[in-house]
Amino acid sequence: MNAINFCVIKVGSNVLTDKDGNPDIKRMDHLVAEITEYRKKGIKVILVSSGAVAFGRKETILPEKLNPVLKKQIWASTGQIDLINTYKKLFAKSTLQVAQILVTKEDFRDRKHFLNMKNCVLGLLAQGIIPIINENDTVAITELMFTDNDELASLSAAMVDADTLILLTNVDGIYTGPPDHPGSELIREVGHGTEKLSSYISATKSSFGRGGMLTKLNMSKKSADLGIQVFIANGKSENILGKILSKDTNFTYFEPKKAKQSTKKWLAHGDQYFKGEVIINQGAKTALYDHKIISLLPIGVTSVYGEFKKGDILRISDEEGNRLGLGRAEYPSKTALERIGLKNQKPIIHYDYLYLFHHD
């Protein structure tokens, strides 16, 4: 396990709520105190916090028959005020200032928006301000919603080049079966060669959150692949962040691979944002997976799908339909179609903006 210098801490709804779904202010206070200790040790912290809907549900009573999406939007928009104000008051005890950042997937899709957001977050940290990030549920629609805040936290960690991602939930980590079953054992470490773990995990979602352990597993593996170490731990446990730092507690740890370049970290999460797709032949596939640094040239492309412009994210697949990776288009779809299979052309995807799945 590596030292923690710069971390994104995600706190789930089940950590911040009690059994009735009401906000657990005492737990929030404990976590704020622990984050403050991280800051005293010189660790940079970004907080990704759920809980807005729980705060809104407590304060705003809505008709049962009201559209569920509208209900969530109302609770999220009213509850976000209370959530951030509660954090503001709790951090103020240690004279720490917080900032609210509300985002949607659209903010991560466009490279320019992505960099603007990154600069804002890093600027806040440079001024000693703790960024608190949450999804803008008020404007997010189903197609553009994050799977849950685990995905948002993973994206945020990649965006700012954090070395650590801590996902706090209401269990100690990933188990070999349902956590409440006597025979289930905690999986303490997930290495590069660890067998597939998804078969152990129930698809059941948490009581008050939108996601479940399967999302945590997928996001943790993706983050580790990008060079970010990940801890999944129990946010209800006392002094959990301090114990993670001293490695004196139960958690599931994901061993990181070699850190990827910043642009590749952005691309790694683009599988839901791509605007077009290129199909490549076996020769191009072999070349891309060679150890030499190489861009994707039109001569290796057999088909181009979708309408896209320069700078949009493209998905790369082989002729058998296997998804190979993602890249940034160097020119628009019209030009790409004209250059399919041609020699002596500029790359359709430059190596600097190319991310391959399952490739060191």
UniProtKB/TrEMBL annotation:
Q: Which InterPro entries match?
A: AceGlu_kinase-like_sf, Asp/Glu/Uridylate_kinase, G5K_ProB, Glu/AcGlu_kinase, Glu_5kinase, Glu_5kinase/COase_Synthase, PUA, PUA-like_sf
Enzyme class label: transferase
Q: Which PANTHER family match?
A: GLUTAMATE 5-KINASE, ISOPENTENYL PHOSPHATE KINASE
Entries under SMART domains matching the protein: PUA
What species was this sequence derived from?
Answer: Belliella marina
Q: E.C. number, please?
A: 2.7.2.11
The places in or outside the cell where this protein is found are: Cytoplasm
Its UniProt entry gives the catalysed reaction(s) as: L-glutamate + ATP = L-glutamyl 5-phosphate + ADP
What residue stretches are annotated with the PUA domain?
276-349
Under which pathway is this protein filed? Amino-acid biosynthesis; L-proline biosynthesis; L-glutamate 5-semialdehyde from L-glutamate: step 1/2
Amino-acid positions noted as binding ATP in the UniProt annotation, renumbered to this chain: K10
Residues reported in the UniProt entry to bind substrate: S50, D137, N149
| Source organism superkingdom | Bacteria
Q: Where is the signal peptide?
A: none
State what this protein does. Catalyzes the transfer of a phosphate group to glutamate to form L-glutamate 5-phosphate.
State the name under which the record lists this protein: Glutamate 5-kinase
Asked if the record carries the keyword Amino-acid biosynthesis, the reply is yes
Q: Which UniProt keywords apply?
A: Amino-acid biosynthesis, ATP-binding, Cytoplasm, Kinase, Nucleotide-binding, Proline biosynthesis, Transferase
Supply the Gene3D superfamilies for this chain: Acetylglutamate kinase-like, PUA domain
